[in-house]
Every structure is written in structure tokens, then in C-alpha cells.
Design a protein that fits this description.
The protein is of the alpha/beta class and 204 residues long. It has five helices and seven strands. Strand 3, helix 3 and strand 4 form a beta-alpha-beta unit. It starts with a strand and ends in an 18-residue tail after the last strand.
């Protein structure tokens, strides 16, 4: 699969507090629409066609925004939004690479409709009701190194999907950068929770 283009979806604007951890933006971008500013920056060196959708994704527009896509890359930290993105990509049969950060911790996962058991494919990584602290996103205490590592891990999975691989479908990586811990979990089956650890050689 070749990368023909990238569509950036975000209805937010660049704030000064974003700059220390979102290296895509500079001081001149403060107050601008994030998707538009990112499109212009990526268009200089990025592959293929870069376009921007300067609006928030919601239950009413998610399916339309994803139409025509080959891979969904979810970079949100709002749990209800992540659940919506996972559900919509699954309904459309699209592979999903999702990454999120919190403090010094990173979470990266892949769902692919053509890989994994049908039982696993029917279960969501983001089931249940989110707690109040999981609704919304506040990343002011996230170091730029953490977001950079998360982006690199997502890129590796996306590149594998583009080469025809499974992008580690069904695998959830949890990293604690501050304490040097990295754990990989298998996604939920019919009767198991999301934190069931995989056997070390399962994907050797």
C-alpha cells in the first residue's frame, strides 16, 4: 500500500502552552487552527497530498470524515473520543493505530479488521464508562520526549501496515518512560479484560 495523502482532523487552535511539547508549531502559530497550521508545515516535507479538516470529530461526522481513508491514526487523549474513533474505524473495516500519553506514560495500540480472531475484533479496548478525569485532555505536564516517543512507535506500526503487515494488531504497548518500564498486552477476547498479558513468545 502506498501513502497517497494525509488528512489532518482537528477543530482546536494552537495555544502557547502547546509549544513545548508540540514541535510542529511555532510562536507565530498561536491562535491559528491546528489542522491548518499542521497542514502547511507538513506540506513542505511530507509525502503525498496533505489536507486539513478544521473541525472536531463527533458521532455525527466521524463516518463521513473517515470515508476514503486506508488507515486511521488516532492521536487524541480524550477517552470518549478514542472509543468513538475505534468503533467507527471498526464499523468501516479500517485499520486503526491509536496513541495517547499521560505524564511520562505512553499507550499505543493497533486494531486491524483482517488480523486477529473474530472474537477479539468484537471487543473494544475502550469499553465501559470513563471516569471524570478521563474526559477531556490536559497534557501540560507531558515532556516533549514522551510525545516524540509515542509518535515514533505509532509511525513504526503505520509503516508496517503500509508494507502489508498487521501493525501488531491486537497488541497494546504501555510505556512508563520515567521508570524505564515497557509492557505489551494482548487485546480483550470474549471473557478477558484488556490487561491480560501475552506470553513472551506469542509474537516472536
Amino acid at each position: 500500500m502506498q501513502l497517497g495523502g494525509i488528512t489532518i482532523i482537528d477543530g482546536d487552535v494552537v495555544e502557547e502552552r502547546n509549544l513545548p511539547r508540540q514541535l510542529l508549531y511555532g510562536k507565530s502559530d498561536v491562535g491559528r487552527l491546528k489542522a491548518q497550521a499542521a497542514m502547511e508545515r507538513c506540506d513542505v516535507s511530507g509525502p503525498g497530498r496533505i489536507s486539513a479538516e478544521c473541525r472536531f470529530l463527533d458521532i455525527g461526522n466521524a463516518a463521513d470524515l473517515f470515508q476514503g481513508a486506508s488507515i486511521i491514526a488516532d492521536c487524541t487523549d480524550d477517552l470518549p473520543a478514542r472509543a468513538l474513533i475505534e468503533r467507527t474505524s471498526s464499523e468501516l473495516g479500517l485499520p486503526l493505530v491509536s496513541g495517547a500519553v499521560h505524564g511520562s506514560q505512553i499507550q499505543v495500540l493497533t486494531r486491524h479488521p483482517q488480523h486477529g480472531s473474530s472474537d477479539q475484533g468484537s471487543r473494544s479496548f475502550f469499553s465501559g464508562r470513563p471516569s471524570e478525569e478521563q474526559e477531556g485532555c490536559d497534557m501540560r505536564d507531558v515532556p516533549v520526549a514522551v510525545t516524540s516517543i509515542a509518535a515514533c512507535l505509532m509511525t513504526m506500526r503505520i509503516e508496517d501496515l503500509l508494507r502489508g503487515g498487521d501493525g501488531l494488531s491486537g497488541m497494546l504497548d504501555l510505556l512508563d518512560v520515567a521508570n524505564g518500564r515497557w509492557m505489551r498486552f494482548r487485546g480483550p477476547g470474549p471473557l478477558e479484560p484488556v490487561d491480560t498479558p501475552i506470553k513472551p513468545m506469542r509474537h516472536a
